[in-house]
């Protein structure tokens, strides 16, 4: 047989998948694969039942997304964009519904990058950003987010722009896995550099509604002058606990979105029509829904981090999203992967080796997610109770 593609060999096999398989084998609690253990809002499920009974919405829909969903997305985001844009978002031309933010990013990369183009990405990073770059032949330039707060050095970012003249910068906000929420000042600095070097800004905003006090979320595209160069990718997955519905969206200027749309068409034709129609209702939830979501995740974060404190494990404190990085350096394992295998076999807890997120291969962390029932999180803490003593610490 002829050899398969070279690109296929460049992807590392997914550590999350590996840990999930081990978790199932050892009947573990899976804190590796980040999706909510709980149900989506009831009104969203009711809407799905209703759509399922209708005969009209089960065929291909418009490539850009159904009118109802695009209007609902624009309406939800208008209040954030209006002051800088001086008008409402044009839902017909400036919104594209995708199959999750994952597909939104892939279509965006195809539209923006030629082989050899450089782009800036903060490390630690969400793994898709690098895998997508392999597909299109773009070259990542890494700028560090420094633990424990995951701030970045403004001069280092400026140097990365000056030395590489990047085509784009990726901003994952709130960030996976660090939980960083970028301040307005940081976003303005990023914008000024992107303007100076005429770079696109690609944002990944899937956790925009999971931000913990006192941190405040700023949509980058809502800053004065940002809209014209910003491709804002987002998702319904996390905000409405529907990771399996595979619905995401992009808000961007028509001139950019029109090209992204071609790749979206090629990859998927359209996002699932009945799910788009069912989902529109969620986009019109009022602030109470989002306040309750924040409250829910704040409680889960507090259960996990106070439990980790009680068993003496060092950890990051997330500002947003639903991940905690646990510092395992003191355990002295040869690798974070070895530690994770031990953790799932002997304690029944699956985590992701942190090195899969760090460009420098940092082995000091593992990643837990906390989108779990409270009882599951308490059980995790119980299982971890003796871990330091078991290791003579
Ligand atoms: C930062 C980030 N972006 C995108 C995704 C995927 O989102 P979607 O389900 O919309 O494809 C995830 C999922 O974990 C994520 O953490």
In CATH, what is the class of the largest domain? Answer: Alpha Beta
Q: How many helix segments?
A: 14
**Rg from alpha-carbon coordinates:** 21 Å
C-alpha termini separation:
53 Å
Q: Mean pLDDT score, rounded?
A: 96
Main sheet? Answer: 7 strands, mixed
**Ligands:** pyridoxal-5'-phosphate
Percentage beta strand: 5-15%
| Class from helix and strand fractions | alpha/beta
Query: In terms of per-residue confidence, which ranges show pLDDT below 50 for 5 or more consecutive residues?
Result: none
CATH A-level architecture of the largest domain: 3-Layer(aba) Sandwich
The CATH homology group name of the largest domain: Type I PLP-dependent aspartate aminotransferase-like (Major domain)
Question: Which topology of the largest domain does CATH recognise?
Answer: Aspartate Aminotransferase, domain 2
Output the strand order for the largest sheet. 2-8-7-6-5-3-4
Our count of domains comes out at 2
Give the SSE order as H and E letters: HHEHHEHEHEHEHEEEHHHEEHEEEHH
The helicity comes to 40-55%
């Amino acid at each position: 047989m002829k050899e398969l593609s070279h690109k296929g060999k460049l992807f590392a096999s997914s550590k999350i998948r590996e840990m999930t398989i081990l978790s199932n084998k050892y009947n573990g609690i899976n804190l590796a694969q980040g999706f909510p253990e709980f149900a989506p809002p009831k009104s969203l499920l009711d809407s799905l039942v209703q759509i399922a009974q209708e005969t009209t919405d089960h065929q291909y829909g418009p490539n850009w997304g159904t009118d109802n969903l695009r209007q609902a997305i624009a309406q939800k985001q208008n209040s954030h964009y209006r002051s800088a844009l001086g008008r409402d978002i044009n839902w017909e031309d400036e919104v594209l519904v995708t199959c999750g933010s994952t597909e939104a990013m892939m279509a965006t990369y195809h539209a923006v990058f030629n082989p050899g183009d450089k782009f800036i990405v903060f490390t630690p990073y969400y793994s898709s950003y690098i895998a997508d770059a392999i597909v299109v032949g773009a070259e990542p330039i890494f700028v560090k987010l420094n633990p424990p707060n995951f701030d970045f050095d403004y001069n280092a970012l400026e140097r990365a722009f000056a030395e590489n003249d990047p085509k784009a910068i990726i901003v994952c906000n709130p960030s996976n896995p660090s939980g960083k929420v970028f301040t307005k000042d940081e976003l303005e600095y990023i914008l000024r550099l992107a303007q100076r070097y005429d770079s696109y800004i690609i944002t990944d905003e899937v956790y925009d509604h999971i931000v913990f006090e006192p941190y405040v979320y700023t949509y980058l595209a809502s800053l004065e002058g940002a809209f014209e160069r910003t491709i804002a990718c987002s998702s319904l997955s996390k905000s409405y606990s529907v990771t399996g519905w595979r619905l995401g969206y992009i808000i961007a200027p028509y001139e950019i979105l029109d090209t992204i749309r071609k790749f979206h068409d090629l990859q998927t034709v359209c996002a699932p029509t009945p799910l788009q129609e069912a989902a529109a209702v969620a986009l019109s939830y009022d602030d109470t829904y989002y306040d309750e979501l924040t409250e829910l995740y704040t409680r889960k974060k507090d259960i996990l981090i106070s439990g980790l404190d009680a068993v003496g494990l060092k950890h990051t404190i997330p500002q947003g999203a639903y991940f905690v990085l646990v510092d395992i350096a003191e355990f002295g394992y040869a690798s974070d992967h070895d530690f994770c295998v031990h953790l799932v076999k002997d304690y029944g807890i699956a985590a992701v080796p942190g090195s899969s997120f760090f460009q420098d291969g940092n082995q000091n962390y593992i990643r837990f997610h906390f989108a779990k029932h409270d009882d599951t999180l308490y059980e995790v803490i119980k299982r971890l109770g003796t871990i330091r003593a078991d290791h003579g610490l």
